[in-house]
C-alpha cells in the first residue's frame, strides 16, 4: 500500500477531483500551513488534503464559550476537533493542488486550489503547528455501464438546471459546455447539485464511477420532482462553491 503524508485542511464542505476551491485563510494554524507550502518550488505541486468535517467546527472558537463565559478558547492545530481529531473527519477526502497562494498585508492568505485525487484518511498527526495526515490514494474504477449512465445523468442534470433557473423545458438554463467523460461528469454533477454535506460525501466515496452515476441519477430525478413544486429555489454555480471562511 502506497501512502503519502500531507497537510490536512478540514472544511464544512466536500471537495471533488477537478473542482476549484477558493479559500480565505486567516487562522494561524492554516497560515502556518500556507507558509510551509510556499517553501515548495513553484514548478512543483503545492499539495494539501481536504476532508469534510463530520463532528467539529471549521473555524475554532475565538470568544469565551458557554456555559463558562470566562473559559479560554481552545488553540492549536486540533482546536474544534476534540481530543481524537481523526474521529471528527470523514474518512475519504481529496488532495488539493494550490495554484495560487497570495499573502495579504495582514498575514492572511488568498488561496485558489483544485481537487486532484481522492484519498482515504488513515491517521492524523497533531504535533506540529497544523494537522498532517497519512493518506492512501484511491483509484477511480469505471464500473459497469459508466458511459451510458453518464449520458443519462447529463440529460437529467440539464432538466435539473432548468428547474433551478425556472426556465421552460425548451430552453437551456446555462450555456456552459458539459463534459462527456463519465468520471468528470460524476464529479461535476456531484459538486453542482444542491445537496447536504453527508450526501455529497457519500458520492465522493462511491466505490466506482458507475455507482456514483447511478446514485446521482436517482438524486437528480428526486430533486427535480421536488423543485418542480418549488420553482423559487435559487440556482447554484456550476463549477465553484462559496469561498470557505477557513
Automatic annotation (TrEMBL):
SMART domains: LON. Residues 6-224 form the Lon N-terminal domain. SUPFAM superfamilies: PUA domain-like. InterPro entries: Lon_prtase_N, Lon_prtase_N_sf, PUA-like_sf. PANTHER family: ATP-DEPENDENT PROTEASE LA (LON) DOMAIN PROTEIN. This is LON peptidase substrate-binding domain-containing protein. The lineage of its organism: Bacteria, Bacillati, Actinomycetota, Actinomycetes, Kitasatosporales.
Amino acid at each position: 500500500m502506497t501512502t503519502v503524508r500531507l497537510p490536512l485542511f478540514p472544511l464544512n464542505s466536500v471537495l471533488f477531483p477537478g473542482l476549484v476551491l477558493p479559500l480565505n485563510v486567516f487562522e494561524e494554524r492554516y497560515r502556518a500551513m500556507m507558509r510551509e507550502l510556499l517553501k515548495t518550488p513553484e514548478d512543483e505541486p503545492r499539495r494539501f488534503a481536504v476532508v469534510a468535517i463530520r463532528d467539529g467546527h471549521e473555524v475554532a472558537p475565538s470568544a469565551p464559550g458557554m456555559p463558562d463565559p470566562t473559559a479560554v478558547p481552545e488553540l492549536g492545530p486540533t482546536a474544534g476537533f476534540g481530543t481524537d481529531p481523526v474521529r471528527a473527519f470523514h474518512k475519504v477526502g481529496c488532495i488539493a493542488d494550490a495554484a495560487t497562494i497570495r499573502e495579504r498585508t495582514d498575514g492572511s492568505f488568498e488561496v485558489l486550489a483544485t481537487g486532484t485525487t481522492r484519498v482515504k484518511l488513515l491517521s492524523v498527526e497533531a504535533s506540529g503547528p497544523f494537522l498532517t495526515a497519512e493518506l492512501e490514494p484511491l483509484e477511480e474504477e469505471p464500473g459497469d455501464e459508466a458511459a451510458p449512465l453518464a449520458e443519462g445523468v447529463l440529460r437529467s442534470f440539464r432538466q435539473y438546471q432548468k428547474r433551478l433557473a425556472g426556465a421552460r423545458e425548451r430552453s437551456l438554463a446555462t450555456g456552459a459546455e458539459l463534459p462527456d467523460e463519465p468520471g468528470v461528469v460524476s464529479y461535476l454533477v456531484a459538486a453542482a447539485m444542491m445537496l447536504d454535506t453527508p450526501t455529497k460525501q457519500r458520492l465522493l466515496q462511491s466505490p466506482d464511477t458507475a455507482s456514483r452515476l447511478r446514485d446521482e441519477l436517482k438524486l437528480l430525478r428526486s430533486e427535480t420532482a421536488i423543485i418542480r413544486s418549488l420553482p423559487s429555489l435559487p440556482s447554484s454555480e456550476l463549477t465553484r462553491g462559496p469561498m470557505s471562511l477557513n
